[in-house]
Amino acid sequence: MASTFDPARLIARLEHGALAIAAAVACIDPDDASWRPDPVSWSVLEIVCHLADEESADFRTRTLMTLEDPEADWPPIDPQGWAIERDYQSKNLQEQLDRFLALRRESIMMLRSLTGPDWSRTHTHPVLGSATAGQMLACWCAHDALHLRQLSRRLYQLAQRDGGGVSLDYAGTW
Asked: Which of 108, 135, 163, 169 has the fewest CB atoms nearer than 10 Å to its CB?
């Protein structure tokens, strides 16, 4: 199936994705925000902190840099390291969600204020390879979807935990 790049739809999807993330997080009791199903998985709180940091330091920055000066080096990011260094687990869920939503609103305003952006401008990363600004915009949307899936998984896992180990097969298979 052939498709056409549609930045307006992607920007709208970013706007709606933030609302979906907020709705998923609204289902989380504050006492459960920092719960992890295992030592290596992120809690809901860590996911939201990550989304806020990625909003300002990764996708927005790298997309705009690719549009403005694709030859410029992208600033380094360390999502896994940030979770520890920035002590995500000690943060307040509502404050971090509010931070993410405010940053996303800023991103939407910036993207909508662009005049005639050339979404085909390409940045070549020494490790990741080449990516167009349009590809970065689409990846930004996909990143939301991946974390929505992760948040949904935490809700399922909380039902498992709070169900006392009963089978959840009746609900359907994960």
From this structure: 169
pTM > 0.85: yes or no:
yes
Report the candidate in 144, 164, 167, 153 with the shortest Cα–Cα distance to residue 28.
153
pLDDT in tens, 125-158: 888 889 999 999 999 999 999 999 999 999 999 9
| CATH of region 7-171 | 1.20.120.450
List phi, psi (to 5°) of 172: 120, 160
Residue 173 three-state SS: coil
Q: How far apart are CA 129 and CA 111, in angstroms?
A: 24
Q: How far is CA 48 from the centre of its chain?
A: 8
Distance CA 143, CA 54 (A): 9
Domain boundaries, the chain: 7-171
Q: How far apart are CA 15 and CA 30, in angstroms?
A: 25
